[in-house]
Specification:
7 helices; elongated; Butyryl-CoA Dehydrogenase, subunit A, domain 3; alpha+beta
Length: 232
């Protein structure tokens, strides 16, 4: 492949990797990872609310990795509650799992930055073998794909298995009991999935630049070595 075309492909890969850094950092700072509705079961059971009456007992919530807010309704109008995970909800959430999600988000930002530098280095510098050459390009992007998958899996398990929304809704509530009515992942969560797709696209771009996968090169090397041994 001509050098100019390879530089263009690596430049595109570098820009995509740097955009992942910005996207993940922006997603971590927002409170739009999850949104949904909560039902005040205490109030609804007291008046045996059904149909349109039930709407008076349904509030809403949205939150991210650091903060969020809920609007609670128990028939007397909305009551807004804004919170931060640290230090407000430390006692009611699975702290270890939540910190692990934050950790892998940080790792994703770090290795996306590393991938950006290595794309530019391979495109305009004089790369040599091992981690500075093709192996490094594949390695950093595979790590980014792996970290983005871990972030989504861990956060989804925190949400579904540990009933994170219920824990938040019932924080500091002594009289009323709230239950998650509906919930779904918001756009900041899907930005992490977009990051996974971008790094997967980067791996395809590396292959389009004429760089074979590391295991393919190793296989060919073993074949050539075996042929040379037979000759002697």
């Amino acid at each position: 492949m001509p050098n100019l075309q390879k530089q263009l492909i690596f430049s595109v890969g570098g820009v995509l990797s740097f955009s992942c850094v910005l996207v993940v950092a922006a997603a971590m700072g927002t409170q739009f990872w999850v949104q949904g509705n909560i039902l005040c079961t205490t109030g609804a059971d007291l008046v045996n609310a059904t149909g349109q009456e039930l709407d008076q007992f349904i509030g809403k919530f949205n939150y991210g990795l650091f903060q969020g807010q809920t609007v609670k309704q128990c028939g007397l109008g909305g009551r807004t509650f804004r919170f931060s995970f640290f230090p407000n909800l430390v006692e009611v959430i699975p702290v270890g799992l939540h910190v692990t999600v934050l950790f892998f988000c940080g790792v994703l930002i770090l290795f996306s930055s590393v991938a950006t530098g290595f794309f530019m280095y391979n495109g305009f510098g004089s790369p040599y073998e091992t981690l500075h050459g093709p192996l490094g390009l594949y390695l950093w992007n595979f790590i980014c794909c792996f970290c983005s998958c871990l972030v989504m899996i861990l956060f989804a398990s925190e949400l579904k298995l540990h009933r994170l929304s219920d824990c938040i809704a019932n924080f500091n509530e002594g009289t009323f009991v709230y239950k998650t009515y509906t919930e779904h992942f918001d756009h900041s969560f899907w930005l992490i999935f977009l990051t996974f797709l971008v790094h997967s696209l980067n791996i395809i771009l590396i292959r389009m630049a004429g760089i074979r996968f590391p295991f393919q090169e190793t296989k060919e090397l073993d074949v050539n070595t075996g042929a040379a041994d037979l000759m002697y």
